[in-house]
Fold these 2 entries.
Entry 1:
Amino acid sequence: MPTGVHIRDARRHLFDAAERVLLRDGPNALTSRAVTTEADVAKGVLHRHFADFDDFLAELVRERIAGIGAQAAALRDSAGTGTVAGNLTGALRELFDPVAVSIVGLVVFRDELRARLRQAGPPNGVPVMAEAVAMIASYLADECELGRIAADADVDSLALSLVGAGHLMFAGRAGAPPEEGEVGKVVTTVIADVVQRRLL
């Protein structure tokens, strides 16, 4: 893009470019030059909007975390409707889209990025994954209160299991993501005990 050409939303333009690089080439290839080349802008454009490249990456990840917050609200609204397994299956499939899986890899790959994210977020766990676990645990707690899973369910452990299994299923795919039935089978297995015991 020629110097001086106005970009309506430079931040979004750069984030979109970063996501394309991540999806195509992986976290090792994500550099400021790769992003600005993909965005077809001068390197200075990135530095006009962000203090440095790690600041840019932190904002990229925070945007994804904000999306998890919106998804968490929708998931909690679904408590008491449909089936618990169906709601969780849908949530995991939405959570682990290809960009999210790539961003988790980026966070694991870059120590400085992880440190910056932890300054404003949970001190433990992998950013993005930690928020995902909190989202699932909150939903399960709501379902406990509604009596749709056992009242003594360990929602934190269940959430860890679901998010960990979900990430492994989606991250291990070179091509298409797992089918809904595949994800549903894992979800049903993980929650089988707490669903069964609520009937006793």
Entry 2:
Amino acid sequence: MKAPLRVVVAKPGLDGHDRGAKIIARAFRDAGFEVIYTGIFQTTEMIARTVLEEDADVLGLSILSGSHLHFAEEICKALREKSDKEVLVIMGGILPPRDIPLVKGFGVGEVFGPGTPTSKIIEYVKEWGGVQ
């Protein structure tokens, strides 16, 4: 039997609005994933270290502060350099539509905006991970 996917949910930077991150962390847990929630005010280094130490398969970033370009680039770069496996990075928050191709270019797999049903996010991650 395949082990459940491990998901880290993180709030980078000075963004203290964590309701969405807590909602998605609970949705992942309820769907059978192993979830590690880092809490607020995380640095790039702290997030990358948690993903590596927890041997996570997925990183969910919740960003509402407008710093999405910086953190997407830095975190995806850190994971490419330090991880020996592919880690799916997904992002939630309020991103201008013109920035979505940019964050995907940095390595973010998908962006989920406000109002996205948690079931859609779970389904996306399950498809990526080959989970039934």
